[in-house]
Design brief:
By secondary structure, this protein is mainly alpha-helical. The protein is built from four helices and no strands. The radius of gyration is 23 Å and the shape is elongated.
Amino acid sequence: MLEDSKTNVNSGPKEEHPVVGLIDNICSEHQISMEQINDFLNDTANFSSAQWLEIQTFKKKLEDDLACAIANIIDPEETKSKYKDLQKAQQWIFVR
């Protein structure tokens, strides 16, 4: 899912999340690849039914939160252009 939605939002330098470095260290220490980890995590035989249900529930919540966060990204250029295009009408308040 994440591979399909990768886009370059920032044109600046890309910062790596600390978890990525930790996962890379674990993989090199145990001489396994990310594909092997993914295969293990996606196999229902490796988990009890309660664990599998909890994993799927968490995965669904994570995907929903990610989709919501992506949908709520504010484009500063679009916001700036919207405010620029607003017409500034004279607004008088009647006072007695």
